[in-house]
């Protein structure tokens, strides 16, 4: 009965959208094709759109109700595909898909850039003291851990100790590497003060990249021990694969290394050139605002590019997996959820 109602609702929406440029709406499905990099890039641009941070409580309720009406076949006439896609975008940006509870604004994916940019600016401040280095690395990893926890897969109970373990590992590795590299640079007498300052600006990247890898491995180590679910082309569960889990963690770790690269490497290069301009030399007070804009631009470009590298539902040939997995299906390939 519910399937018939949904079909009728979909038919009504399709008729109302004959002249619309938006693709036919599919409840719970991405608007853009995920088989191409461009499609994934467009999809993640929607996910991180900061405009959803300003959605009112009333607009959220309307969006949720519109999707419920579509699901139960009670959609009012004249609703367009564009309105349905917009409603789904709002719901997915604000509510956790498993708990259906609102995600705290700074920890939403749409809040990652606006709330994370001040931290990036702090990481890249010149002439940092030991205390400021520790503070900004700690704040960065704390923000990352909160975002990871707020957007976690909550379908299965996961002990909080796993997240604490990942958090502590990330903080310790980030702080240790950043402080260690800063000490080495300070003791390198062959560098001129200008060269030393430039090198110090690149210190946050290896610290953050290594901490990100540490965070992924520690928080998802259980997947390597137990495996992750792999599905056939029809969405049927084939089994649990440790090899697929290794692929998933490798792809996620690579993404976490690529992500901070433009954010923490490009701004120092750009700022080292801008600081030589007569405008900034005559107005040193503009240095911080300009650096903030440069970091914001780099962050806004890097985030969707990095998370678009691999499909969230990745494909792997069954011949590469455990023999029992290959024997359990006739499909040449299976898919698994890589995670973000």
UniProtKB/TrEMBL annotation:
Record GO biological process: amino acid transport; citrate transport; mitochondrial transmembrane transport
InterPro entries linked: Mtc (IPR004686)
Pfam families linked to this entry: SFXNs
Top-level taxon of origin: Eukaryota
UniProt subcellular location: Mitochondrion membrane
Membrane topology note: Multi-pass membrane protein
Name this protein carries in UniProt: Sidoreflexin
GO cellular component, one term: mitochondrial inner membrane
Similarity comment: Belongs to the sideroflexin family.
Chief localization: mitochondrion
Keyword set, alphabetical order: Amino-acid transport, Membrane, Mitochondrion, Transmembrane, Transmembrane helix, Transport
């Amino acid at each position: 009965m519910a399937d018939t109602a949904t079909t009728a609702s979909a038919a009504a929406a399709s008729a109302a959208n004959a002249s619309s440029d938006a693709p036919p709406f599919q409840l719970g499905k991405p608007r853009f094709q995920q088989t191409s990099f461009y499609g994934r890039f467009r999809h993640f641009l929607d996910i991180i759109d900061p405009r959803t941070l300003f959605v009112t409580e009333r607009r959220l309720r309307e969006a949720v109700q519109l999707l419920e009406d579509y699901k139960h076949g009670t959609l009012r006439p004249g609703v367009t595909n564009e309105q349905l896609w917009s409603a789904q975008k709002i719901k997915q940006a604000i509510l956790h898909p498993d708990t259906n509870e609102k995600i705290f604004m700074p920890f939403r994916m749409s809040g990652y850039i606006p709330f994370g940019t001040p931290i990036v600016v702090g990481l890249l401040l010149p002439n940092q003291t030991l205390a400021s280095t520790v503070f900004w690395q700690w704040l960065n990893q704390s923000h990352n851990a909160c975002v990871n926890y707020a957007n976690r897969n909550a379908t299965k109970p996961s002990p909080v100790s796993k997240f604490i373990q990942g958090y502590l590992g990330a903080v310790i590795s980030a702080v240790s590497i950043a402080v260690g590299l800063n000490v080495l640079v300070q003791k390198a007498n062959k560098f001129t003060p200008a060269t030393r300052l430039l090198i110090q600006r690149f210190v946050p990247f290896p610290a953050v990249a290594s901490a990100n890898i540490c965070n992924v491995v520690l928080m998802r180590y259980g997947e390597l021990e137990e495996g992750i679910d792999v599905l056939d082309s029809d969405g049927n569960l084939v089994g649990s694969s440790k090899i697929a889990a290794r692929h998933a963690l490798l792809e996620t770790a690579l993404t976490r290394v690529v992500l901070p690269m433009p954010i923490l490497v490009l701004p120092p290069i750009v700022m080292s050139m801008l600081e030589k301009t007569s405008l900034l030399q005559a107005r040193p007070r503009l240095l911080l605002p300009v650096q903030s804009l440069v970091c914001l631009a780099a962050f806004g470009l890097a985030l969707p590019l990095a998370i678009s590298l691999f499909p969230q539902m990745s494909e792997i040939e069954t011949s590469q997996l455990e023999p029992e997995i290959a024997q359990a299906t006739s499909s040449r390939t299976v898919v698994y959820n890589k995670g973000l």
